[in-house]
C-alpha cells in the first residue's frame, strides 16, 4: 500500500515496484539497529546515480506528503566516502581523519545548519576537498533527499559524527 502511494506521488521519474529485490546494505545496516525486532514496514527507493544532485533534491520534494503523514524517511549514505583512500592500518583508531576529510565534513555540516543547500547540491564546485570526499556520488546523493525534505527552519542535529580510516565520516543528520 505504501509503495503504491509513493509511486503515485512521484511524477518526475518512472517508478517501478519490485517486491522481490530485497534490501540494499545501505538500508538494512541502518534499520536493523533502529528496529531490531523488524516490526515495521520498510520501503526502499533506488537512487539513479546517473542523475545529478539537483535532480535528487527536486525529486525529494515529491515525497514531502509522506513525511507530513508521519513516514520516517532515511537518507542512508556518507558525506565523506572515499574508500580508495582509506588508511586500513588506522581503521580502528577512533576518530582518525585526514585534514581534508575533517575540513569538508565541517563545511558540509555548517552549510546544512545554515540551510544553505545550493553549495551542497553543487558540491563539484566546492574544490578539491569536496571531490576527494565524493569521488563517486552514490553515497552522497541520499543527503539530497534529507535536505530536500527539510521545511522552513526545522532544527538540525548531528550524531555519530566521527571520521573512520581517514577518508570516511559517519556523520548522521537529523532534521526535525
TrEMBL record:
Pfam family, one: LigB
Domain Extradiol ring-cleavage dioxygenase class III enzyme subunit B: 2-156
The protein's required cofactors: Zn(2+)
Assigned keywords, A-Z: Metal-binding, Oxidoreductase, Zinc
Superkingdom field: Bacteria
Keyword Iron-sulfur found: no
Family to which the UniProt record says this protein belongs: Belongs to the DODA-type extradiol aromatic ring-opening dioxygenase family.
Name of this protein: Extradiol ring-cleavage dioxygenase class III enzyme subunit B domain-containing protein
